[in-house]
Amino acid sequence: MVRLPLTPDDVARGQRLGALLRRARADRSILTVALDAGISPETLRKIESGRVATPAFPTVAAIAEVLGLSLDAVWDAIKGPDALDRVEPESGTRLAS
């Protein structure tokens, strides 16, 4: 299977996803969140840094569940650069300042 090169929009979406996950993780360690989500800490680190711009859906779903984010909120946040300010975890804590 040939993987197509990422577009600038793909890269930007990956960066927004990483920023959202870092904010939602707050003071929890990468190790704790990754293990709770069933992924490696290195995978979470790469997603948060934007080095993995298009992670697999089950990976994103597992991380979102651990962080208390709905998948709708995650999708809304990565669609556009201003969307991060509107995302809140299910606990009601605001992610944006």
Structural features:
single chain, 97 residues, mainly alpha, 5 helices, 57% helix
CA radius of gyration is: 13 Å
Provide the helix percentage.
Answer: 55-70%
Oligomeric state of the chains present here: single chain
List segments where confidence is low: pLDDT < 50 over at least 5 consecutive residues.
92-97
Q: Tell the overall outline.
A: globular
Domain unit count: 1
Structural class based on helices, strands and sheet pairing: mainly alpha
- CATH topological fold name: 434 Repressor (Amino-terminal Domain)
Q: Please summarize the sheet with the most strands.
A: none
How would you sum up this structure, described in words?
The protein has 5 helices and no strands. It has helices at 8-25, 30-37, 41-49, 57-67, 71-79. It is globular, with a radius of gyration of 13 Å. It has one domain (8-84): lambda repressor-like DNA-binding domains (434 Repressor (Amino-terminal Domain), Orthogonal Bundle), CATH 1.10.260. With 97 residues, it is mostly helical. 57% of the residues lie in helices and 0% in strands.
